[in-house]
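Methods — Computational structure assignment.
A single polypeptide chain was analysed. Its primary sequence is given first, followed by the predicted tertiary structure written as structure tokens.
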Amino acid sequence: VWNKQQTELFKEATGQGLVRTCDGRLDSPGHTAKYGTYTATDSETKEVLRVETVQV
């Protein structure tokens, strides 16, 4: 479902001049973070375009 919605959002944004806002954060259970999350949103519609969680 997520992949289908993401594809539709990118199709709608094609040719419209997408304004993107991105942010990342590291979650830490102690002194060092094990995972990081990076999120990209469309600044005008406030829709989430992409979310990535990576092990750091």
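Note: Residues 2-55 form one domain.
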